[in-house]
Design a protein that fits this description.
PfkB family carbohydrate kinase; about 270 residues; 8-stranded mixed beta sheet; 8 helices; alpha/beta; Carboh/pur_kinase_PfkB_CS
Length: about 270
């Protein structure tokens, strides 16, 4: 069976107005959602010992995500504070100290090399280890979100096989230029999401466009990670791009119909 590893960031998404917290973080979300889509997954990252960390760890166990190399540390788990404004998420502060304290030894790298895909992101503080990760022979998937710069792309892209970016503030012409520039750097799959305008993709040296599925969202948190997860699932299952993009759009829409990235609300004290 194909295997995927979520590597790096995790958070408790804390909904301040409702005093509720949910497990999340890009690497965690992808490991959980790909598991739900039928892929054998694991998560490697740093989880704190406080109530939030215990909750996050329990949720991963319930989702049957493999945790054999998890790093547990004393202290407060990383978190993001969120407010919902017309069902859209607004971030209002975070602390990534615990999550960003991840370290990888040779046994971790050997473990990473046992997967087909490892997925990480711009928030995981692993830029300095990407070269070592790629040396294991694994395919590297990377989410650049919308906070990338040209310099950051130049630093990270040499190690990336599958690149995901948010281009909501880009024009369609700018998105096409970005896709082509990244593809020229040797990246196998490039996906740029553009909010309500859908997703733009270069895969198998062809261009694809995927429209969004119109819905009335409850909470948009996690929709992008669901999209990424279904695309990676399609890559592992060797689906055609037009197939996995359509399915990814469906899953992103579904993810907007519940609060949190993948559920598991817990009351904050």
């Amino acid at each position: 069976m194909s295997r995927l590893l979520g590597l790096g960031d995790n958070v408790l998404d804390r909904y301040i107005d409702k005093a509720l917290m949910y497990p999340g973080g890009n690497a965690v979300n992808v490991s959980v959602m790909c598991k739900r889509y039928g892929i054998d997954t694991a998560y490697l990252g740093v989880i704190g010992s406080d109530e939030g960390g215990v909750h996050l760890l329990d949720c991963l166990k319930k989702e049957k995500v493999e945790l054999s190399r998890i790093q547990l540390k004393e202290g407060t788990n990383s978190y993001s504070n969120i407010r919902l404004v017309e069902h859209d998420r607004i971030f209002s502060g975070s602390d990534m100290t615990m999550s960003n304290s991840i370290s990888l030894d040779e046994k971790d790298l050997e473990y990473i090399g046992s997967f087909d895909i490892v997925h990480t992101d711009i928030y995981s503080n692993l830029e300095g280890r990407l070269k070592d990760i790629k040396r294991t022979g694994v395919k590297l998937s990377f989410d650049f979100s919308d906070e990338f710069t040209e310099e950051y792309l130049d630093e990270v892209l040499p190690y990336v096989d599958y690149a995901f970016l948010s281009g909501s503030n880009y024009s369609s012409q700018e998105v096409m230029k970005l896709l082509k520039e990244i593809k020229k750097k040797g990246v196998e799959l490039v996906v740029v999401t553009k909010g309500k305008e859908g997703a733009f993709c270069i895969a198998q040296d062809e261009f694809f466009r995927q429209e969004v599925i119109p819905i009335e969202p409850v909470d948009t948190l996690g929709a992008g990670d669901s999209f990424i997860s279904r695309v990676l699932t399609g890559m592992l299952k060797k689906e055609a791009p037009q197939v996995f993009l359509k399915e990814a759009s469906k899953e992103a829409a579904k993810a907007c119909m519940w609060e949190g990235a993948f559920g598991y609300a817990k009351k904050m004290k």
